[in-house]
Fold this protein.
Amino acid sequence: MKNLISQTAVVVFVSLLIISCKSNSEKKDDNTQETTKVKELPNTFELKELALHPEGIVYSNKTKKTYVSSYFKGKIVTVNLEGKMSDFVTDDDLVAVVGMAIDETKNRLLVCNSNSGLSLKSKKETIGRLAEVIVYDLTTGKKIKTIDLAGLHQGGHFLNDITTDGKGNVYVTDSFSPVIYKINANDEASVLTNDKQFEVPQGAFGLNGIVYHSDNYLIVGSMGKLYKVSLSNPQEVKEITLDKPINSLDGLLLIDGNKLALASNYFMGPKFDEAIYKIETTDNWTTAKVTNSFKNLAGVFPTTLTKINNDVYVSYGYFGDLINPKSAPNDSFKLQKVEFDN
């Protein structure tokens, strides 16, 4: 009996020890989880630089930096998660840097180089004609190559936005021509589609934002409308029927396969409330509804959207300042978190 009691006491002691160790281990795990939580991002990242006028923004999960293109200065800066801004590319060949895309499989940054006549390095002979995609190393900023698209289509040119499909293919919109270009995995360029639905009056901006959908099609915006472009049959271009009109559109961002964020801004003509819209579909982007809007904007002329971790951010271009000779140069730009109600 005494031995039994002794054995029982040992068993109880060991059991308590195991439970105690397990409890301490779980606490350590909990503490570890708390210390590895993703730091909440600020509502705004300040971009303090005179006349920067950002247009394109894109975040890299690999480098943990946001790449920001300067429309006016023709350069690219980076902003890290602590908000520190640094010059990344200061290439003399860059005139107006517009849309950008990242090909992380090849560690490349692809940028649209255009000229509308409003940038610091603009030259008269290339206004409405410059149409280059320039490729840089995502880590070092070293130039890899320049791909000239101007000779693929007769007409005016303004390369505006760019996207990749994860298979090495790149797609580019041209605001001055009704054309979407394709650059394949071997960097060979061609016209993907040339569609009358994308035609606009001379001097107007047509094709703009573009995103790739994993169901093998593109969603592009032009003059306040959205279109679905099949990649298996690029001549199949169908307007996406929206439940309400949108005044204009610029950058697009797929939040997920059925949700899209869209930046709406005005440049000239009657003013309207600028906003970031959330658009959702239930039929694979045959039709869609505007389900939410974000109008608490921290700047003027929202342009491009990117996702940093799980948050959507927008840049502000203040482009009206570039055409108003009485406007004082702006030295304060920002990236702002977009917070929809739901």
Residues 52-338 form a domain with the Neuraminidase fold (CATH 2.120.10.30). The mean pLDDT is 89. The chain has one domain: 52-338.
